[in-house]
Write a structure and sequence with these properties.
single chain; alpha/beta; Rossmann fold; UDP-galactose 4-epimerase, domain 1; 2 domains; two-stranded parallel ribbon; binds nicotinamide-adenine-dinucleotide
Length: 308
Amino acid sequence: MKAIVTGGAGFIGSHIAERLVNEGYSVTVIDNLHTGDKKNLKKISEKIKFVQKNASSIKTEGKADVVFHEGIYSSSPMYREDPELMGKAISDFISILEYCVKNDCKLVFASSSSIYNGYPPPHTETMFPKVKDFYTEARYPMERFADLFNQMYGLKYCGLRYFSVYGDKEESKGKFANMVSQIIWKGLLDKELIIYGDGSQRRDLINVGDVVSANIIAAKSGENGIFNVGNGKSYTFNEIIGMVEDIMQRKIKRKNIENPLKNYVDVVEADTAKSREILGFSPSVKIKDGIKAAYEYYKQLKKVPDIL
Ligand SMILES: NC(=O)c1ccc[n+]([C@@H]2O[C@H](COP(=O)([O-])OP(=O)(O)OC[C@H]3O[C@@H](n4cnc5c(N)ncnc54)[C@H](O)[C@@H]3O)[C@@H](O)[C@H]2O)c1
Protein backbone atom coordinates (compact mmCIF):
# COMPACT_ATOMS: atom_id res chain seq x y z
CA MET A 1 0.00 0.00 0.00
CA LYS A 2 1.27 3.46 -0.88
CA ALA A 3 0.36 6.49 1.23
CA ILE A 4 1.01 10.21 0.78
CA VAL A 5 1.10 12.39 3.88
CA THR A 6 0.96 16.13 3.23
CA GLY A 7 2.28 18.09 6.21
CA GLY A 8 4.11 14.91 7.22
CA ALA A 9 7.00 16.80 8.82
CA GLY A 10 4.60 18.46 11.26
CA PHE A 11 3.31 17.36 14.64
CA ILE A 12 0.37 15.11 13.67
CA GLY A 13 1.60 14.29 10.15
CA SER A 14 4.96 12.94 11.34
CA HIS A 15 3.19 10.64 13.79
CA ILE A 16 0.91 9.41 10.99
CA ALA A 17 3.91 8.81 8.70
CA GLU A 18 5.72 6.85 11.42
CA ARG A 19 2.72 4.59 12.14
CA LEU A 20 2.25 3.96 8.39
CA VAL A 21 5.91 2.95 7.97
CA ASN A 22 5.57 0.62 10.97
CA GLU A 23 2.49 -0.91 9.36
CA GLY A 24 4.45 -1.59 6.15
CA TYR A 25 3.14 1.23 3.93
CA SER A 26 5.35 2.87 1.36
CA VAL A 27 5.19 6.54 2.42
CA THR A 28 5.75 9.83 0.60
CA VAL A 29 5.76 13.00 2.71
CA ILE A 30 5.06 16.35 1.05
CA ASP A 31 5.79 19.30 3.33
CA ASN A 32 6.84 22.90 2.69
CA LEU A 33 8.46 23.04 6.17
CA HIS A 34 6.46 26.10 7.22
CA THR A 35 6.02 24.83 10.79
CA GLY A 36 7.30 21.30 10.19
CA ASP A 37 10.82 20.02 10.74
CA LYS A 38 12.59 17.07 9.11
CA LYS A 39 13.84 16.17 12.61
CA ASN A 40 10.30 14.91 13.31
CA LEU A 41 10.93 12.22 10.70
CA LYS A 42 14.43 11.20 11.76
CA LYS A 43 13.38 7.70 12.91
CA ILE A 44 11.97 6.89 9.46
CA SER A 45 13.99 9.20 7.19
CA GLU A 46 15.67 6.29 5.38
CA LYS A 47 12.35 4.59 4.73
CA ILE A 48 10.27 7.38 3.19
CA LYS A 49 10.35 9.68 0.18
CA PHE A 50 10.45 13.33 1.30
CA VAL A 51 9.32 16.12 -1.03
CA GLN A 52 9.88 19.67 0.22
CA LYS A 53 7.09 21.38 -1.68
CA ASN A 54 3.62 22.77 -1.38
CA ALA A 55 0.81 20.22 -0.93
CA SER A 56 -0.55 20.98 -4.42
CA SER A 57 2.58 19.34 -5.88
CA ILE A 58 0.76 16.04 -5.23
CA LYS A 59 -0.32 16.41 -8.88
CA THR A 60 3.10 15.17 -10.01
CA GLU A 61 3.16 12.12 -7.72
CA GLY A 62 2.40 8.61 -9.00
CA LYS A 63 -0.64 6.66 -7.84
CA ALA A 64 -1.19 6.20 -4.10
CA ASP A 65 -3.81 4.13 -2.28
CA VAL A 66 -4.50 6.73 0.38
CA VAL A 67 -3.76 10.41 1.03
CA PHE A 68 -3.60 11.96 4.51
CA HIS A 69 -3.86 15.74 4.18
CA GLU A 70 -2.40 17.60 7.18
CA GLY A 71 -0.40 20.14 5.14
CA ILE A 72 -2.18 23.40 5.67
CA TYR A 73 -1.19 26.39 7.79
CA SER A 74 -2.22 25.14 11.16
CA SER A 75 -3.15 28.05 13.40
CA SER A 76 -5.67 30.87 13.46
CA PRO A 77 -3.22 33.81 13.98
CA MET A 78 -1.39 32.85 10.75
CA TYR A 79 -4.59 33.55 8.80
CA ARG A 80 -5.25 36.80 10.67
CA GLU A 81 -1.86 38.03 9.48
CA ASP A 82 -2.45 36.87 5.90
CA PRO A 83 -6.11 36.27 4.93
CA GLU A 84 -5.01 35.16 1.44
CA LEU A 85 -4.02 31.89 3.10
CA MET A 86 -7.71 30.97 3.05
CA GLY A 87 -7.72 30.96 -0.74
CA LYS A 88 -4.40 29.11 -0.89
CA ALA A 89 -5.60 26.35 1.47
CA ILE A 90 -8.72 25.81 -0.62
CA SER A 91 -6.83 25.89 -3.90
CA ASP A 92 -4.33 23.26 -2.59
CA PHE A 93 -7.25 21.16 -1.41
CA ILE A 94 -8.84 21.17 -4.88
CA SER A 95 -5.55 19.78 -6.29
CA ILE A 96 -5.73 17.03 -3.68
CA LEU A 97 -9.36 16.22 -4.45
CA GLU A 98 -8.59 15.98 -8.16
CA TYR A 99 -5.58 13.75 -7.49
CA CYS A 100 -7.68 11.40 -5.32
CA VAL A 101 -10.46 11.13 -7.90
CA LYS A 102 -7.98 10.56 -10.75
CA ASN A 103 -6.09 7.88 -8.80
CA ASP A 104 -9.14 6.37 -7.09
CA CYS A 105 -7.60 6.71 -3.63
CA LYS A 106 -9.16 7.42 -0.27
CA LEU A 107 -8.66 10.89 1.21
CA VAL A 108 -8.44 11.45 4.96
CA PHE A 109 -8.05 15.11 5.84
CA ALA A 110 -7.68 17.28 8.93
CA SER A 111 -10.57 19.53 9.79
CA SER A 112 -11.08 21.25 13.12
CA SER A 113 -13.37 21.49 16.12
CA SER A 114 -13.15 25.28 15.67
CA ILE A 115 -16.09 24.74 13.29
CA TYR A 116 -18.22 24.58 16.47
CA ASN A 117 -17.03 27.87 17.94
CA GLY A 118 -19.97 29.61 19.53
CA TYR A 119 -22.09 26.53 20.27
CA PRO A 120 -22.56 25.13 23.75
CA PRO A 121 -21.24 21.55 24.15
CA PRO A 122 -21.46 18.71 23.34
CA HIS A 123 -20.33 19.48 19.80
CA THR A 124 -22.08 17.31 17.25
CA GLU A 125 -21.32 16.89 13.54
CA THR A 126 -24.86 17.96 12.57
CA MET A 127 -24.41 21.47 14.03
CA PHE A 128 -24.33 24.14 11.33
CA PRO A 129 -20.87 25.81 11.40
CA LYS A 130 -20.69 29.20 13.07
CA VAL A 131 -17.43 30.45 11.62
CA LYS A 132 -15.68 33.16 13.63
CA ASP A 133 -12.17 33.24 12.16
CA PHE A 134 -10.30 32.92 8.86
CA TYR A 135 -8.64 29.61 9.81
CA THR A 136 -12.03 27.95 10.25
CA GLU A 137 -13.46 29.70 7.22
CA ALA A 138 -10.93 27.75 5.15
CA ARG A 139 -12.00 24.44 6.76
CA TYR A 140 -15.69 24.57 6.03
CA PRO A 141 -15.40 24.77 2.21
CA MET A 142 -12.87 21.92 2.36
CA GLU A 143 -15.50 19.74 3.99
CA ARG A 144 -18.14 20.92 1.49
CA PHE A 145 -15.88 20.31 -1.52
CA ALA A 146 -15.04 16.80 -0.35
CA ASP A 147 -18.78 16.07 -0.16
CA LEU A 148 -19.33 17.58 -3.63
CA PHE A 149 -16.50 15.50 -5.13
CA ASN A 150 -18.08 12.48 -3.46
CA GLN A 151 -21.48 13.23 -5.01
CA MET A 152 -20.13 14.17 -8.44
CA TYR A 153 -17.20 11.75 -8.87
CA GLY A 154 -17.53 9.14 -6.12
CA LEU A 155 -14.58 10.47 -4.06
CA LYS A 156 -13.93 8.29 -0.98
CA TYR A 157 -13.18 10.58 1.95
CA CYS A 158 -13.23 11.15 5.70
CA GLY A 159 -12.76 14.64 7.15
CA LEU A 160 -11.67 14.48 10.78
CA ARG A 161 -12.53 17.35 13.08
CA TYR A 162 -9.66 17.21 15.55
CA PHE A 163 -10.24 18.60 19.02
CA SER A 164 -7.22 19.72 21.10
CA VAL A 165 -4.36 17.43 20.07
CA TYR A 166 -1.40 17.08 22.45
CA GLY A 167 1.74 14.96 22.55
CA ASP A 168 5.42 14.82 21.66
CA LYS A 169 7.21 16.36 18.65
CA GLU A 170 5.47 19.71 18.85
CA GLU A 171 8.51 21.88 19.44
CA SER A 172 8.77 23.14 15.84
CA LYS A 173 5.30 24.72 16.25
CA GLY A 174 6.66 27.01 19.01
CA LYS A 175 4.00 29.48 20.18
CA PHE A 176 1.35 27.62 18.12
CA ALA A 177 1.78 24.40 20.11
CA ASN A 178 -0.93 22.84 22.27
CA MET A 179 -1.32 24.09 25.85
CA VAL A 180 0.02 20.79 27.25
CA SER A 181 3.35 21.28 25.46
CA GLN A 182 3.47 24.95 26.45
CA ILE A 183 2.79 24.15 30.13
CA ILE A 184 5.49 21.46 30.14
CA TRP A 185 7.99 23.80 28.43
CA LYS A 186 7.32 26.54 31.00
CA GLY A 187 7.81 24.00 33.77
CA LEU A 188 11.09 22.74 32.30
CA LEU A 189 12.38 26.30 31.84
CA ASP A 190 10.95 27.40 35.21
CA LYS A 191 9.32 30.40 33.52
CA GLU A 192 5.97 32.08 34.03
CA LEU A 193 2.91 30.69 32.21
CA ILE A 194 0.48 33.37 30.99
CA ILE A 195 -3.18 32.35 31.28
CA TYR A 196 -5.99 34.25 29.59
CA GLY A 197 -8.69 34.79 32.23
CA ASP A 198 -9.06 32.68 35.35
CA GLY A 199 -8.14 29.33 33.78
CA SER A 200 -11.68 27.96 33.90
CA GLN A 201 -11.96 27.59 30.09
CA ARG A 202 -12.32 23.93 29.06
CA ARG A 203 -10.73 21.94 26.24
CA ASP A 204 -11.29 18.39 24.97
CA LEU A 205 -7.76 16.98 24.83
CA ILE A 206 -6.89 14.02 22.64
CA ASN A 207 -3.51 12.34 22.44
CA VAL A 208 -1.72 12.40 19.09
CA GLY A 209 -1.47 8.57 19.17
CA ASP A 210 -5.26 8.36 19.25
CA VAL A 211 -5.50 10.89 16.41
CA VAL A 212 -3.19 8.69 14.33
CA SER A 213 -5.40 5.67 15.08
CA ALA A 214 -8.48 7.64 13.96
CA ASN A 215 -6.71 8.47 10.69
CA ILE A 216 -5.75 4.85 9.99
CA ILE A 217 -9.24 3.58 10.88
CA ALA A 218 -10.78 6.23 8.60
CA ALA A 219 -8.40 5.26 5.78
CA LYS A 220 -9.41 1.60 6.00
CA SER A 221 -13.11 2.30 6.48
CA GLY A 222 -15.61 2.11 3.65
CA GLU A 223 -17.46 5.06 5.20
CA ASN A 224 -17.41 8.64 3.92
CA GLY A 225 -18.16 11.82 5.83
CA ILE A 226 -17.14 14.19 8.59
CA PHE A 227 -16.24 12.81 12.02
CA ASN A 228 -15.26 14.28 15.37
CA VAL A 229 -11.94 13.14 16.78
CA GLY A 230 -12.02 14.04 20.46
CA ASN A 231 -12.31 12.35 23.84
CA GLY A 232 -15.80 13.52 24.75
CA LYS A 233 -14.53 14.96 28.02
CA SER A 234 -13.11 18.41 28.66
CA TYR A 235 -10.75 19.73 31.35
CA THR A 236 -10.20 23.28 32.58
CA PHE A 237 -6.80 24.89 32.00
CA ASN A 238 -6.38 24.86 35.79
CA GLU A 239 -6.98 21.09 35.87
CA ILE A 240 -4.53 20.51 33.01
CA ILE A 241 -1.85 22.61 34.73
CA GLY A 242 -2.49 20.62 37.92
CA MET A 243 -1.96 17.32 36.07
CA VAL A 244 1.31 18.58 34.55
CA GLU A 245 2.46 19.78 37.98
CA ASP A 246 1.72 16.36 39.53
CA ILE A 247 3.71 14.62 36.81
CA MET A 248 6.63 17.07 36.92
CA GLN A 249 6.58 17.20 40.71
CA ARG A 250 6.92 20.97 40.65
CA LYS A 251 4.73 24.07 40.75
CA ILE A 252 4.47 26.08 37.54
CA LYS A 253 4.63 29.86 37.88
CA ARG A 254 1.41 31.37 36.60
CA LYS A 255 0.16 34.82 35.66
CA ASN A 256 -3.52 35.36 34.90
CA ILE A 257 -4.22 38.27 32.55
CA GLU A 258 -7.36 39.73 31.01
CA ASN A 259 -8.20 37.84 27.84
CA PRO A 260 -7.12 40.01 24.85
CA LEU A 261 -8.74 37.72 22.24
CA LYS A 262 -12.06 38.41 20.54
CA ASN A 263 -14.40 35.45 19.87
CA TYR A 264 -12.63 33.37 22.51
CA VAL A 265 -14.23 29.98 23.10
CA ASP A 266 -14.92 28.91 26.69
CA VAL A 267 -15.82 25.25 26.31
CA VAL A 268 -14.99 22.72 23.61
CA GLU A 269 -16.19 19.14 24.04
CA ALA A 270 -16.82 16.49 21.39
CA ASP A 271 -19.86 14.35 20.90
CA THR A 272 -18.03 11.12 20.02
CA ALA A 273 -21.05 8.98 19.10
CA LYS A 274 -20.74 9.25 15.31
CA SER A 275 -17.03 8.36 15.09
CA ARG A 276 -17.53 5.52 17.57
CA GLU A 277 -20.66 4.05 15.97
CA ILE A 278 -19.84 4.56 12.28
CA LEU A 279 -16.03 4.45 12.12
CA GLY A 280 -15.53 2.25 15.18
CA PHE A 281 -13.03 4.73 16.65
CA SER A 282 -12.62 5.23 20.40
CA PRO A 283 -9.61 6.93 21.98
CA SER A 284 -7.62 4.78 24.37
CA VAL A 285 -4.81 6.94 25.81
CA LYS A 286 -5.56 8.05 29.39
CA ILE A 287 -4.85 11.74 29.83
CA LYS A 288 -2.31 11.37 32.64
CA ASP A 289 -0.41 8.67 30.69
CA GLY A 290 -0.41 10.85 27.57
CA ILE A 291 0.85 13.92 29.43
CA LYS A 292 3.52 11.84 31.18
CA ALA A 293 4.77 10.45 27.85
CA ALA A 294 4.91 13.98 26.37
CA TYR A 295 6.81 15.20 29.45
CA GLU A 296 9.34 12.32 29.21
CA TYR A 297 9.94 13.25 25.56
CA TYR A 298 10.40 17.01 26.15
CA LYS A 299 12.56 16.42 29.22
CA GLN A 300 15.21 14.60 27.19
CA LEU A 301 15.52 17.33 24.52
CA LYS A 302 18.57 19.59 24.68
CA LYS A 303 16.26 22.60 24.64
CA VAL A 304 12.54 23.35 24.48
CA PRO A 305 10.98 26.49 22.94
CA ASP A 306 11.16 29.57 25.17
CA ILE A 307 8.00 31.36 24.11
CA LEU A 308 6.17 34.32 25.63
N1 LIG B 1 -2.95 20.18 16.66
C1 LIG B 1 -4.25 20.39 16.86
O1 LIG B 1 -4.71 20.46 18.02
C2 LIG B 1 -5.19 20.54 15.70
C3 LIG B 1 -6.56 20.74 15.97
C4 LIG B 1 -7.43 20.89 14.89
C5 LIG B 1 -6.96 20.81 13.59
N2 LIG B 1 -5.63 20.63 13.36
C6 LIG B 1 -5.16 20.56 11.96
O2 LIG B 1 -4.40 19.38 11.77
C7 LIG B 1 -3.39 19.60 10.78
C8 LIG B 1 -2.03 19.25 11.35
O3 LIG B 1 -1.79 20.08 12.47
P1 LIG B 1 -0.50 19.99 13.35
O4 LIG B 1 -0.92 20.28 14.74
O5 LIG B 1 0.26 18.77 13.04
O6 LIG B 1 0.28 21.29 12.83
P2 LIG B 1 1.74 21.44 12.23
O7 LIG B 1 1.92 22.89 11.98
O8 LIG B 1 2.74 20.76 13.08
O9 LIG B 1 1.62 20.64 10.87
C9 LIG B 1 1.31 21.20 9.63
C10 LIG B 1 2.38 20.74 8.66
O10 LIG B 1 2.01 21.12 7.35
C11 LIG B 1 3.08 21.80 6.71
N3 LIG B 1 2.43 22.72 5.77
C12 LIG B 1 1.73 23.85 6.03
N4 LIG B 1 1.23 24.34 4.91
C13 LIG B 1 1.60 23.51 3.91
C14 LIG B 1 1.39 23.50 2.50
N5 LIG B 1 0.65 24.44 1.90
N6 LIG B 1 1.94 22.51 1.78
C15 LIG B 1 2.70 21.53 2.37
N7 LIG B 1 2.92 21.49 3.70
C16 LIG B 1 2.38 22.46 4.45
C17 LIG B 1 3.85 22.46 7.83
O11 LIG B 1 5.19 22.72 7.50
C18 LIG B 1 3.73 21.40 8.93
O12 LIG B 1 4.75 20.44 8.83
C19 LIG B 1 -3.49 21.08 10.39
O13 LIG B 1 -4.28 21.17 9.24
C20 LIG B 1 -4.20 21.68 11.60
O14 LIG B 1 -4.88 22.86 11.28
C21 LIG B 1 -4.74 20.48 14.39
